[in-house]
Task: structure prediction
Amino acid sequence: MTRIKFDGQFFETEPSETVLQTLLRNNMQVPYGCRAGVCQSCLMRCLDDLPVPPASQVGLKAAQQVDNYFLPCICQPKNEMSVILPRTEDVWLEGKVVDKYALSANVMLLEIESKAPFAFLAGQFVNLRNKAGVTRSYSIATIPNASHTLTFHLRILPHGQFSRWVANELEIGMSLQFSQAQGSCHYMEGQLEQPLLLIGTGTGLAPLYGIIRDALDIHHHSGDIHLFHGSRDATGLYFESQLRDMAAHHTNFHYTPCISGENSDQARYTQGRANQIALEKYPQLNGWRVYLCGQPDMVLQTKKMAYLQGASLKDIHADAFLS
Result:
């Protein structure tokens, strides 16, 4: 056995265990994707003078290899290692727009491809910046993948400087800068049978969709997953068909679209606010994991109510959005 130092702590590896497996077994929340050395989402750097195992650097650029970057998912350490995640300072990365289309009258899907391997956890957010320096934060609505693409759901605001630029000027093939991934609202490793409750309003759905895909497609979560997505009217439920298809293919995923305004189709949509409907339906949240994304007032109120209804604070993950 060898020791891995990460985030100021030491962890002992098990026989034939990779660095990534050691960290995940010890509940360290680190980015990863394929676990096979292909997507490079788990990229790390070793701080020791000794070289890392050559097999763990296959596919990396020469400069990365010299700087002792390696892929922990395929690295079986031979010596004690001190490792860190790639630098997360305010460094701007380059991406290319590979897709852009309307999801509704005021929501647009934007997909960019990173020009270099990019580490993130489904549900985190990045800052997007155009050439004029206008910067906005958007959650990632996809899971780590080998093509290094990032998908976003952008609400196009009437006077939104960045969103109107995306809608009217940004074209496929153009470059766009983005920051390192941030945020703690993401799927947590372990407890595959734990029930999950996800409540979102508007484009707060974006990170929740990424989290759900991560839970189902990557981790094969077996516990029930309940998503309540709310809007004032049906046009705000812009991802309805995709979510209904997902529910049809996964027996443990349950989707409830909610309309708080006038509802002419109560057989299709549940009447009321998504957070109130969810908390009334599941009044006992002991042992549940809760994810909240959307308007700040909704997130704050629902976080408090979820706690009062039994959810542990460590199991409540939230991101608030102003738009």
